[in-house]
């Protein structure tokens, strides 16, 4: 099974992660991905965070930034918020909890990138290919976080935590990059809402799928 081999290569080292990965990579589009993920019937905050972490990790491993993962995240959050709730108030609470877990994933990835850049693995940092990979992951994370902020998946609390990380990491760190992209997205939306949404949130065309870059 090609997906199973790829899951192992990408260190999806638990049954849960492999199931999430297969649902995400086997989907026809973002709506199908959200449906497949919802059918996994994940329980509790830990499994929800695992799902969001796999989504984010796949996004970061693409050669080119792919808005498929952001749209799949948006649709998944909406789907699980409504499916498990009996009232609008309950749905809002569920959405808040899922978005809280997404914030944790974004912050964890930001810290991981900062650790790598600040000597967490100096040998890899001195390697040109590894350095380029870290820069690509940082850029993808920045675009994902900016789109998530525009889509109300990340809130002011997440923004504040990223600002604090940016102060610690300095102007060239991963947190600073994420922080700048969010500010840029907000400013762009204030000038042209449609353009901001098109660039950061919506896929270039229906069914756009560069996941073959991961499969390669």
Total count of strands: 0
What is the multimeric organization of the chains shown?
single chain
Q: What value does the Rg take, in angstroms?
A: 17 Å
Distance between the termini: 14 Å
Percentage of residues in strands: under 5%
- Figure out the total of helices: 12
Shape: globular
Low-confidence stretches: 120-125, 201-210
Which sequence of SSEs, written as H and E, runs from N to C?
HHHHHHHHHHHH
> What class, by secondary structure content?
mainly alpha
Mean pLDDT: 81
Main sheet makeup: none
Q: What portion of residues is helical? A: over 70%
SSE layout and pairing:
Blueprint: H1 2-9, H2 15-26, H3 30-38, H4 44-61, H5 68-83, H6 88-120, H7 122-125, H8 128-150, H9 156-169, H10 174-191, H11 193-200, H12 212-215
How is this structure best summarized?
This protein is mainly alpha-helical. It has helices spanning about 1-10, 15-25, 30-40, 45-60, 70-85, 90-120, 120-125, 130-150, 155-170, 175-190, 195-200, 210-215. Helices cover about 75% and strands about 0% of the residues.
Explained architecture:
It is a single chain. With 216 residues, the protein is mostly helical. Helix content is 77%, strand content 0%. It is globular, with a radius of gyration of 17 Å.
